[in-house]
Design a protein that fits this description.
about 1900 residues; alpha+beta; seven-stranded antiparallel β-sheet; 42 strands; about 40% helix
């Protein structure tokens, strides 16, 4: 029974305590005066009566009522029902003014403008304080008291209040109690049936109506995961109801943090508390809640929930969240489901509010039953008497529910509410309620129905009924009778009298009287029905049904069992074979549990002694099993292994035994306190269960080691059931019996604590206590404190030497270890003993015992450690020495490491075949490379050698990692990435000390980033001398003058001598140039401008006397190319030839104008050097426009420069129209720039043809017929190209839209900028490019169109903003967006990660490549290049003027020349192109490649690699146009970063001259082995073998290439992905030779064994080009070896090849093209697969019906891929006009079946249908059969047989298909050859 009301209080407005207009309340009277013992009077109640503050108002307000909730210090809630009405009183402010002292008067003056009313109304509150929550009853009672007062009823108020305070009602049980307060009233109070279920009324339904489903679910999850929640509303009662509703849906959890449904304004600072809370505040204070950063605000009036950004609410796990939302929606809005039905049912109204409230609560009850199902199986009961002590095994619960990763459940289980839940609902013997029943008996039903919403709804309605019945067990009774105040008293006109002062004595009498009565009354005994709490179905089944557990097939478990039985049967070889499979299988949970069960069977009397090898294997498997356990051990694997690691052991020597625990210590689980607690409680539970079973049965039950999932034994009675029975019997026991039981339990716990102190010391003390690794890591006891370095002790033996135990600090350190372990165990013991009620004496004894246990164990371990050192070390594989290059030296000897698999699947065996990785070997650091060499750990491929290496200079990232290799626990690892697309991920063996690793890293860093370029391998190779550069300061200017003179002189001499040779492929030979003698007098050339010496800072190492070196400048690539192209002469101004439009200027001979340009430059003839100096200042880095190539046909020139300086841009493009008195310098520069461009335009023949006029008005548009009309038709239209490049949208014909729009050059650009922004005239100009003739005739030549610029300037869009162009200028700007260096750098990083992922990623390889955007960068560069090629080809010049002129500009200019000029597609030409455009024109190789310490911070940016990739893309599309092969490009891509050669070092010619690297002296070369130039190396190699040669090279004359540039047409370069693990990358050829010799030597002894010709080829292991060479290389090799055998001097391969080509040309038939051998290339009828840019059907008479012309860049079919299966599919859809397509026909003899004669048949070769058909005779119309050419594999010459016709042997040939071989015989040898050629060409067409 409980009092209905504890206190009644009258609170009024305190007139004396007004502060600045704010009043305060004061308690006028309270009853009873004295506090109740069980319920002290709550403090601060006056604040809660008026939460918004005590204020007087000018008008009377209606009476109000609400319930506030206060929580006392014992966490008991007090409900304060506040009834407030308003009483009239004289205005205190007015009266205050009258008797004011000075200060009051001052205030009154300030407020003079406000008229103060004479009478005001002050609030008065009647407050009822109770521990019960009966809102309506309180409202009625307080309303009655007020009615008695205002209506002057005859009842004394004291009586009413006395009756109210003495009213007693039961807490629960469902009974009804009628009460009366003696004023003619009557009320019925309904108590709930169960007091554990909350009573909610309609508050939950109301809450959902106000906020909606999703918002309330957010609040629900926030409350459970301990966030701060604040409700806002303008109604106080609604705040209370909302808070009550939120608490009701949290049942069965109880909210245990701050709970204040109504918070007074004065206490708002409470909202800043750090602890979670649920608080309600009036909306009046909304502004003050705005700055709360971590509070979730729910606005009940507005229906919103605001979650701050910094707050993350964990939501319910799916599918629970979705199912809960569905169920709630069906309850709250049943019409939703049928809203779309044509005939909706009549009644789909939601239930009444009261019922709906219970239905919502039922949904949440159902939700909790699902969340907590099976929780009782994870309870550990650790004490039964005197009180049950219960702990929850969180890890097991989460593990079995497969919800380890679930954030929400983790937080809920860690929360205080759940802790209270366990302590309240854990005890097995207590009263049960609805939730207990649900979780025990209805789990199965819930599980079956969860997927069917309607069944769920039915269940919810059943639960709702029970909840409703709990609150309203009887039908409602209409017995309420409570007076309300009369209407007149509610709206009084006259002043009502104030609330009277009550007589305290009479009220107290009532109270005393009732108290005396209670004492004499017999005590009310409510019989509590206690029972055993049912546990419900066990957890295991639920998980398997959901299938969340990682499946372990029975086969895997079988493998684990077999391996263990082999080990114990001593079949070690068998076990070794199974080991890799077992270690893989142990990743799965099932296999790990199976492993522990199997091991259990081999333990006898807690001991199992093994020999060394068995011990090693078992320990390896244990480590592997533990390695995948999380620190929480949710699957109980570590728990099951714990008893085993103390059982398995081996004998080390006299009386010394080593146990397995000393080898499995390094796992996080052992340092996790929660794991030890769960283990301890589990064991205690088992022992206590055994204790009671034993006392019951009187016989000893052996305690078997059970599954540690908290469940006790399921075969028998469970621990909880036992405990329940014991709790029931407890009251029946006598005192002695009770004391005995308590003592027995306590002793059991105590003995277990000692046992665990021992166990913990076993697993926490390292074997070698002088080297404590636990302390090195993050500190014992932290979850993360572990480092992976432990190994079995025979391994420890092998590393004994590496650990120096001679240090004198051994004792101090070991005591350190001891202390930390003792501290950890003490913390554990304190916690578990306090929780399980161990006596203080025992606890003290434990604290004394623990240090002794630890010390004793340390002593034992010392002996074990000593003995284990004496063990013979495990046989480790021998370290293999790598082969080194000549001049390459080892910097550090090999360190034993494991090469760990990364994210690439090929080598790990996942894609089939045995696993090559992980491999065990050593890492070597040389002056040039980083090399790993070793053997795979998988015994099936143990004899293979695995090598990975890369040049140190290519290292891009090195980071430390910690690796757990499968076999052992390895200390630390490194991950090294290189820009040659190699990733070495190694784990250092335990014998490698960590300081050695640091030394290795320092060396690596020093070699990667040398102080100076002289420290790179290219300089240090083969040198023993010092690397210091001697700078000569004396005579500096002198040497420069000499340099410049010599430069000019030798240049002139060379050019005069060469007579400006214009022949296409004949640059002057090296021999001629080097032997040039001086023929001209030195002073013949006058240097027009002296250079200002103050500018020069060339600290040159060039000797002034060394003229030979000077003349070499002229031999450089630039000069040779200028001569080839016929650009310019070198002469002084007097003798300058006016006919030549360009000249070679020496203005930069001292590198004074532009450091990064070459010394000799091509400029217009008419521009003097002085102008050049001024112009250069306008450009970034002074890189002004110079000519670098000229089109021999159209005479258009290609110029390159940097972008303009910002200030130069505007001056350049604005017409100088503004009249100024004195022309400013900017104007004059701008004019000079115009003059410069005009001079370039003037050099073009097409310009001079237009009668030299400057305007374009008189431009002729006459038609010129072109010889190659098809050629013009197939050119992509320039206008469209231009628009695509600039990003202007263009509708592409539907057929090709798949290829995608070209897009702007910068795909992420901010929208397409139209051309007209720069030039109003560009639109029509470009439009002029696109109008073909209406009559379908040839379109007019593009360079005679009316509106066409002579010069297009490709400029950077961002640079050209704001410039407006003059419409009459002859140049036009094409603004494009350039990809900057940062973009390239980031893209490359992503590409490297995609091609060499460090771990297996969820995203696919192609997705990662796409995200890197590498292909779109290539697309942009190629796109601009193709545009420039088109411009040059149509007669317009182009100037590429982007960024600083040394990155993108270089790429574009080089590609343009490569596409336009076939010379650059030869070996010599490509070399010259790179030397000229990349080296001479100053691409910053050192800076972009981060080659030295200075450029380290800038990072690696592969601009040159991007260029090579573009060349590779063009090569793929035009394989016959390049003399060099793809391998040549890969070779350059590898060596441009390898630093093996000096070619790609330094940033410009200036720097190379300064360091004396540019010109190597002929006599300087001491060791012929060391090649300083990559070109020399390639030449040398090319002479020896055809590695770089492209056999398909068959160039067309003057062919301009126009590649497709869509991303869909680009292929990822295999350079990025290929790998050869059998040898290092194949780009260092000396290594290949040495390795092959070594292999031959190794192979010789095996001659006796039978030799097989078959060979297994692994894609990632073997070098495919070596193992499976192409036919031509193989034949050339065979030829060479045959010549060697015959003792002939071997002919050079090139000579042989040229001879064969010549004979093929002369032999070829006149109708086939003489371009190349038909038999070798199989392409006699198709000159080139992409040459015609359209599908050309030569023999078919299809005519105009088939038009596959590809003048717009097409889709996927537009790039025929060599090696495609068949083109018959392409043609099958077209009906030909003829019945037959006869490409070639004739009589052939065909062999019949066995012993049948050869018959002559008429054979027809059909190229269109791709068939070889045969007929009986020529006239026969019916085809007798055909051979599909798609199935043909080869055509070879055959040999005659017994039955064959007697014709010459050469007339036979065989046709091999995938199914069989057809034998044919032609009329004679010639026709046989013709047939073979025709079939071959047909095949190659496909």
């Amino acid at each position: 029974m409980a009092r209905l009301a504890d206190y009644f209080v009258v609170i009024g407005y305190d007139l004396d305590k007004r502060v600045e207009g704010e009043g305060q309340g004061c308690i006028l009277q309270r009853f009873p005066e004295k506090d109740w013992e069980d319920s002290p009077f709550p403090q601060g109640i006056e604040l809660f009566c008026q939460p918004s503050g005590w204020q007087v108002v000018p008008e009377q307000q209606p009476a109000s009522f609400f319930v506030a909730v206060l929580t006392d210090i014992n966490s008991d809630r007090h409900y304060c029902a506040c009834f407030t009405f308003w009483e009239c009183l004289d205005n205190p402010q007015v009266t205050g003014c009258r008797k004011a002292d000075g200060s009051r008067a001052d205030e009154a003056d300030e407020e003079a403008d406000v008229v103060q009313p004479a009478r005001v109304f002050a609030p008065k509150s009647l407050v009822l304080v109770s521990q019960l929550d009966y809102t309506e009853v309180f409202r009625n009672c307080l309303g009655l008291i007020y009615t008695v007062h205002v209506d002057d009823l005859s009842v004394p108020l004291e009586t009413v209040i006395g009756n109210l305070l003495t009213c007693v009602i039961p807490l629960a049980g469902g009974s009804q109690r009628t009460i009366t307060l003696g004023a003619g009233d009557r009320q019925v109070i309904q108590t709930p049936i169960s007091d554990s279920l909350p009573v909610s009324g309609c508050s939950v339904a109301q809450l959902f109506r106000q906020l909606g489903i999703v918002n309330v679910l957010y609040l629900f999850c926030a409350a459970l995961t301990e966030h701060k929640i604040l409700f806002l509303s303008s109604s106080y009662q609604r705040l209370t109801d909302a808070c009550r509703g939120l608490l009701a849906i949290m049942f069965p959890l109880k909210y245990s943090f701050t709970y204040v449904p109504i918070l007074p304004g004065k206490l708002l600072e409470v909202l800043s508390t750090p602890t979670p809370f649920i608080i309600g505040v009036n909306s009046f204070f909304r502004s003050e809640t705005q700055e709360l950063l971590d509070v979730i605000i729910a606005d009940l009036d507005g229906g919103t929930v605001t979650i701050p950004e910094c707050v993350h609410i964990s939501l319910l796990p799916e599918p629970l969240l979705q199912q809960t939302q569905t169920a709630l929606s069906m309850v709250l809005d049943p019409e939703l489901e049928v809203a779309d039905q044509a005939f909706p049912p009549q009644s789909t109204q939601p239930s009444a509010l009261k019922i709906q409230d219970k239905e919502i609560r039922a949904v949440f009850l159902w939700l909790f039953a699902r969340l907590f199902q099976g929780y009782r199986w994870c309870l550990h009961i650790i004490r039964i008497h005197p009180e049950p002590v219960i702990r929850f095994h969180k890890a097991a619960f989460l593990g079995q529910r497969a919800l380890m990763e679930d954030d929400f459940l983790m937080k809920v289980l860690d929360g205080m509410a759940f802790a209270a839940f366990v302590s309240e609902r854990g005890p097995p013997y207590r009263t049960t309620d609805l939730f207990d029943d649900l979780v025990a008996n209805q789990v199965e039903r819930i599980r079956q129905e969860e997927s069917c919403p309607h069944k769920v709804l039915n269940h919810v309605k059943e639960l709702a009924e029970q909840l409703f019945k709990n609150e309203n067990p009887y039908p409602a009774v209409a017995m309420h009778k409570v007076q309300r105040p009369s209407d007149s008293s509610l709206n009084p006109t006259q002043n009502q009298k104030p609330f009277p002062v009550l007589d305290e004595v009479s009220v107290q009498l009532f109270i005393d009287h009732a108290a005396a009565k209670l004492k004499t009354a017999p005590p009310v005994v409510k019989a509590e029905v206690k029972s055993m709490v049912p546990s419900g179905p066990p957890l295991g089944d639920t998980v398997d049904r959901n299938g969340c557990v990682m499946a372990n097939s029975a086969r895997r478990l079988e493998v684990v069992r077999n391996c263990i039985s082999y080990i114990f049967e001593n079949k070690m070889l068998e076990a070794k074979k199974l080991m890799p499979a077992v270690l893989r299988a142990l990743k799965g949970r099932g296999a790990r549990l199976c492993f522990t069960q199997e091991l259990n069977q081999h333990v006898l009397q807690n001991r199992a002694v093994l020999d060394d090898q068995q011990f090693d294997y078992i320990v390896r498997m244990m480590n592997c099993t533990l390695q995948d356990c999380s620190h929480m051990d949710e699957h109980g694997v570590a728990a099951a292994l714990l008893p085993l690691v103390t059982a398995f052991c081996r004998k080390l020597g006299a009386g010394i035994t080593q146990f397995a625990y000393s080898c499995v210590q390094e796992h996080t689980v052992w340092t996790n306190m929660q794991f030890w607690e769960a283990m301890f409680y589990s064991d205690v539970q088992n022992h206590i269960r055994a204790l009671y079973l034993e006392t019951e049965d009187g016989e000893q039950h052996s305690i078997s080691q059970q599954q540690q999932d908290g469940s006790g034994s399921r075969k028998d009675i469970s621990a909880l059931e036992l405990a329940s029975e014991q709790s029931r019997l407890w009251p029946t026991f006598g005192k002695e019996m009770q004391a005995e039981l308590v003592q027995k339990e306590e002793s059991t716990v105590f003995s277990q604590a000692i046992h665990y102190a021992n166990r913990m010391s076993y697993l926490l003390l390292p074997l070698d206590t002088s080297k404590n690794r636990l302390l090195k890591s993050s500190g014992l006891g932290d979850v993360e404190s572990v480092s992976n370095s432990y190994v079995t002790n025979s391994i420890a033996g092998s590393m004994a030497e590496s650990y120096d135990t001679e240090s004198g600090f051994e004792d101090a350190e070991s005591s350190d270890v001891a202390n930390s372990v003792v501290r950890f165990i003490n913390r554990f013991v304190d916690k578990v003993c306090n929780e399980s009620g161990v006596t203080n004496e025992h606890l003290k004894a434990l604290h004394i015992m623990i240090p002794d246990i630890v010390q004793m164990h340390i002593e034992t371990l010392d002996a074990v450690h000593r003995e284990s050192k004496r063990l013979p070390p495990i046989q480790k594989p021998k370290l293999l020495r790598p082969t080194l290059l000549p001049g390459e030296e080892l910097m550090m000897d090999g360190m034993r490491v494991h090469l760990v698999p990364d994210g690439r699947d090929e080598a790990t065996g996942l894609m089939g075949g045995p696993a090559l990785l992980p491999a065990e070997g050593a890492i070597f650091l040389t002056t040039y490379r980083l090399i790993f060499k070793g053997t795979p750990t998988d015994p099936l491929v143990g004899e293979q050698v695995v090598t990975r290496s890369f040049p140190i200079a290519s290292l891009t990232k090195e980071k430390k990692i910690s690796v757990t290799a499968i076999d052992q626990y390895v200390q630390e690892g490194l991950q090294l990435r290189s820009c040659t697309f190699q990733l070495i991920k190694i784990a250092f063996d335990e014998e490698v000390e960590s300081d050695l690793v640091e030394v290795f890293r320092k060396h690596l860093h020093k070699l990667r980033y040398p102080q100076h370029v002289h420290g790179t391998f290219a300089f240090t190779v083969g040198q023993c001398g010092k690397l210091v550069v001697e700078h000569k300061t004396k005579d500096k200017n002198q040497s420069l003058k000499t340099l410049s003179r010599n430069l000019v002189k030798t240049a002139k001499r060379t050019i005069v001598r060469q007579n400006v040779s214009r022949k296409k492929y004949s640059p002057p030979t090296w021999e001629n140039r080097s032997s040039l003698q001086s023929e001209l007098d030195e002073d013949e050339i006058s240097v027009s401008e002296e250079v200002d010496h103050s500018v020069l800072t060339l600290s040159s190492t060039i000797r002034s006397s060394d003229r030979q070196t000077m003349s070499n400048v002229v031999e450089r690539a630039c000069c040779r190319d200028y001569q080839r192209l016929g650009l310019g002469t070198l002469s002084n101004s007097l003798t300058r030839s006016k006919s030549e439009p360009f000249r070679i200027s020496t203005v930069n001979r001292m590198y004074s104008i532009c450091r990064s340009y070459p010394g000799l430059l091509i400029v217009p003839q008419t521009i003097p050097d002085s102008t050049i100096q001024r112009i250069s200042r306008c450009y970034r880095q002074n890189r002004f426009p110079v000519v670098c190539w000229r089109n021999s046909r159209t005479k258009a020139v290609l110029l390159r420069s940097a972008g303009l300086h910002a200030k130069g841009v505007v001056g350049f493009f604005k017409s100088p129209n503004t009249p100024t008195a004195v022309p400013s310098q900017a104007d004059s520069t701008s004019l000079e720039q115009e003059k410069y461009l005009q001079a370039i335009i003037g050099s073009m023949p097409s310009y001079s043809e237009s009668s030299g006029r400057n305007t374009l008005s008189g431009f002729s548009s006459a038609h010129m017929s072109t010889s190659d009309s098809a050629d013009k038709l197939r050119q992509p239209k320039i206008g469209m190209l231009m628009k695509q490049v600039m990003g202007v949208k263009e509708e592409v014909p539907g057929t090709f839209s798949r290829g995608g729009r070209w897009g702007s050059i910068r795909l992420t650009g901010s929208g397409a900028l139209r051309l007209s922004a720069y030039n109003p005239d560009v639109g029509p100009r470009l439009a002029g490019f696109e109008s073909p003739q209406p009559n379908g005739g040839p379109s007019e030549p593009l360079f005679l169109r009316q509106q066409k610029a002579f010069l297009y300037i490709i400029g950077d869009k961002s640079q050209l903003k704001g410039g407006k162009q003059d419409a009459f200028q002859q140049w036009e700007v094409v603004p494009i967006e350039v990809c900057d260096v940062r973009q390239v750098k980031n893209s490359f990083k992503k590409l490297i990660k995609a091609c060499m992922p460090s771990s297996v990623t969820a995203d696919g390889f192609l997705r990662c490549v796409e995200e890197s955007e590498w292909m779109s960068l290539l697309h942009r560069v190629l796109q601009v290049s193709v545009l420039v090629v088109e411009l040059l080809d149509t007669g317009s010049s182009a100037m590429v003027s982007l960024e600083d002129g040394w990155d993108v500009t270089t790429q574009v200019v080089s590609l343009v020349q490569l596409l336009s000029d076939p010379y650059y597609r030869t070996f010599d030409g490509f070399r010259l192109l790179v030397e000229k455009e990349w080296l001479s024109f100053g691409h910053r190789f050192s800076h972009r490649g981060a080659q030295t310490l200075a450029s380290q911070s800038s990072g690696f940016t592969p601009v040159f690699l991007q260029f090579l990739d573009c060349v590779h893309q063009i090569h793929l599309q035009f394989p016959m146009e390049f003399e060099f092969s793809q391998y040549y490009l890969k070779f350059l891509a590898y060596h441009y970063v390898s630093n093996r050669f000096r070619t790609f070092l330094l940033d410009s010619d200036y720097e190379r001259i300064e360091l004396g690297v540019l010109f190597e002296e002929k006599g300087e070369r001491k060791s012929p082995l060391v090649c300083k130039s990559v070109w020399d190396y390639i030449d040398r190699l090319n002479k020896k073998a055809p590695v770089f040669y492209n056999y398909m090279f068959s160039p067309e004359d003057e062919e301009v290439l126009r590649p497709y540039t869509f991303i869909s047409n680009l292929k990822l370069w295999d350079f990025y992905t290929e790998e050869t693990l059998s040898e290092a990358p194949s780009y260092d050829w000396e290594l290949r030779g040495r390795q092959e010799r070594a292999e031959e030597v190794a192979d010789k002894p095996d001659t006796s064994a039978p030799v097989t010709q078959r060979r297994i080829v692994w894609p990632c292991y073997d070098n495919l080009s070596k193992v499976m060479p192409d036919a031509i290389s193989k034949l050339l090799q065979d030829l060479q070896s045959l010549e060697a055998e015959l003792g002939q001097t071997a002919e050079r391969w090139k000579d042989t090849w040229d001879k064969i080509k010549m004979t093929q040309r002369t032999d070829a038939k006149p109708e086939s093209k003489p371009s190349f051998s038909s038999s070798l290339l199989m392409a006699s009828n198709l000159s080139h697969q992409r040459r015609s840019q359209g599908v050309c059907l030569q023999e078919s008479a299809v005519g105009p019906s088939l038009n596959l012309g590809l003048d717009c860049e097409g889709g996927a079919t537009s790039t025929p891929v060599p090696g495609r299966t068949s083109t018959s599919t392409l043609y099958s859809q077209f009906q030909s006009t003829e019945s037959e397509n006869r490409s070639f026909e004739g009589i052939l003899y065909k062999r019949g079946s066995i012993l049948k004669p050869w018959r002559p048949r008429w054979f027809v070769l059909d190229k269109t249908k791709h068939q070889l058909r045969y007929y009986n005779t020529r006239q026969d119309k019916e085809c007798r059969g055909f051979i599909d050419l798609a199935e043909v594999e080869a055509v070879t010459s055959g040999s005659p047989m017994v039955t064959s016709p007697k014709i010459t042997e050469k007339a036979y040939f065989d046709l091999k298909t995938t199914k069989r071989v057809f034998c044919f015989c032609a009329q004679d040898a010639a026709s046989a050859q013709q047939w073979m050629d025709s079939i071959q060409s047909c095949l190659s067409d496909a």
